[in-house]
Amino acid sequence: MGRSRNNPALTVFAVLTAVSTLFLIWIGGVVTSHGAGMAVPDWPTTFGYNMFAFPLSEWFFTGTGISKEHSHRIVASVIGFLTTILAVWLWVKEERRWLRWLGVIAFLAVSAQGVLGGLRVTLYKDELGIFHATLAQIFFVLVSSIAFFQTKWWRKLVECRSGGSSESVEFHRWFRPVMLAATILILMQLVLGASMRHQHAGLAVPDFPLAYGKVWPPTDAAFLAEVNRARIGADHRDFLPITAAQVHLHMAHRMTALVILVLVATCAVLSRKGEKQEKVARFATGWLFLILAQASLGAYTVWSN
Amino acid sequence: MKLNRRWLMLAALVASLQFISAGDITGKITLKGTPPPEKDLPLDPQCGKIHPTKKTKFYVVGANGELADTFIYVKDGLTGKTFPVPEKPALIDQVGCEYAPYVSGVMVNQRILVRNSDPVLHNVHPIPAVAGNKEANIAQLPKAKDLEFSFAKEEQFLRFKCDVHPWMFSYVTVLSHPFYATSAANGTFKIENLPAGKYTIEAIHRKAGKQTMEVEVPATGGKEANFTFDAK
CA A301 → CA A205, A294, A304, B116, distances in Å? Predict the structure, then answer.
């Protein structure tokens, strides 16, 4: 009944929490994409009801903004509950002290995330939406890391690193700095992406790979006035007018994506140069494929509009 | 007390003289060319039953190009003059999962009542862009009591939105004077009781753009001002 590093049931539960969090992020994306974030004007209540007592007939599969926003709140509550259990379970059963504290941090993060989401609604602050979107993904990384740290893969990696195994590896000297730079840039990219989405202006640049037919788009007042006039009627959501800053933000997002792609590709190449690092190389290649998929989704978002 | 009464009578006389020498600006808004087709709305089952067109309405045009929902107002010529805020509130109704009117005007601090005549819940969410005008977001049940809003600063096309039904918008222009109108379904408009003088009037259609015109309102009678926009 004591603490251990090997808790199979806890590992499965942590993975379940991480997968559920990914689902929650997807619903959050649906809410923002459909402009439904303010469809329920009050928080923590829902139209004056206790959130969990809001009649199913009023929201479940009604196809309205309420359906999207309230589903997001309900799933978020479930994730909050799962994270609480995870934190308590880690505290009771996990041997590694730092991992127990990661559980506590996850609990605090999910609580803060809920409050941020609520305040974004009640204070009418798009800026809070940017923090909410960024923290969502940091939280997902945190819960996924907790799950990963529970696995045999992680224990084996630690053994390799400590040299206690015959499989100890030697990385190329540039591997770690490049990986670190890519990781920091990805976090920046999350903030840029969240900033774009939470200004509710739709796509500031409607074509790809060029931007308004140019390598770098014009942003003078006359050009923007014409663009904004043309945007009216382009979508039933009747997006707000775009500004020069939003065009620059969009272009910064594209440029950052390109740099991330190059850095992660470099990581994948460097991971193959060194001693006995096949497993790391496989992870790095998988990472590259994920980044390529994400970049393709970004391009498709533009083309499909 | 007698002195006060005299002053009051004098002020009333001056105010009434101002409107004795006043005229109307009437006109018609016409759209030249064929507007782009309207988009289908992603209606949910409830609104699908009651929405009149199931399409966006960026252009509401008659058979002969009569253009509705153009906002016409006095842009210049009233500097330094003040006007009382109407007691009567402006009314925006939610009917058929649409706001009616789509384009309208009010005076600064004039009350705006928002009604829900629909059998479904809406949330009324004004999103001002000018500092000093307050954002709000209030749920309104079917046939519930009218909601009341007012805005302290001038703003063009202040957006009212329903987040439950993301195609629902109403655009209210807030002005410091009462001389404005919105073109009707037959393209006509009338700005009433404008004191005699020279003015710049502006006609704005959200999609077709804006045009200005210099107009001199005579002491008696009225003035006609017609605008033609190109479909864009």
Answer: 11, 10, 5, 36
Mean pLDDT by 10 residues, chain B (232 residues): 56 49 92 94 94 94 97 95 96 97 98 97 96 96 95 98 95 98 98 95 95 93 94 88
Q: For residues A279 and A287, is the Cβ–Cβ distance under 8 A?
A: no
Residues with Cβ within 8 Å of residue A248, at least 6 apart in sequence: A219
Amino acid at B31: L
Closest-CA residue of B relative to A64 is B164
> Each residue of A113-146: b (16+ CB within 10 Å) or e?
bbebbbbbbeebbeebbbbbbbbbbebbbbbbbb
Nearest-angstrom CA–CA distance, A117 and A133 = 9
Task: Check CB contact of A61 with chain B, cutoff 8 Å.
Answer: no
Give every CB contact of residue A53 below 8 A, 6+ residues apart in sequence.
Answer: none
Identify which of A65, A230, A235 has the shortest CB distance to residue B164.
Answer: A65
Instruction: Tell me the C-alpha to C-alpha distance, in Å, between residue A153 and each of A105, A279, B51.
Output: 23, 10, 57
Could you tell me which residues are beta bridge partners of residue B22?
B195
Model confidence, pTM: 0.85
Query: Is the ipTM, as predicted for this complex, more than 0.95?
Result: no
How crowded is residue A83: how many other Cβ atoms within 10 Å of its Cβ?
Answer: 26
For residue A44, say if its preceding peptide bond is cis, omega within 30 degrees of 0: yes
- B204 min Cα distance to partner chain A (Å): 12
Q: Determine the 3-state secondary structure of A209 from DSSP.
A: coil
Chain A residues with beta carbon closer than 8 angstroms to that of B58: 232-233
Strand extents, DSSP E, chain B: 22-32, 71-76, 90-94, 99-100, 103-107, 112-116, 122-127, 138-140, 147-149, 155-161, 169-175, 180-182, 188-195, 197-205, 209-217, 222-224, 227-230
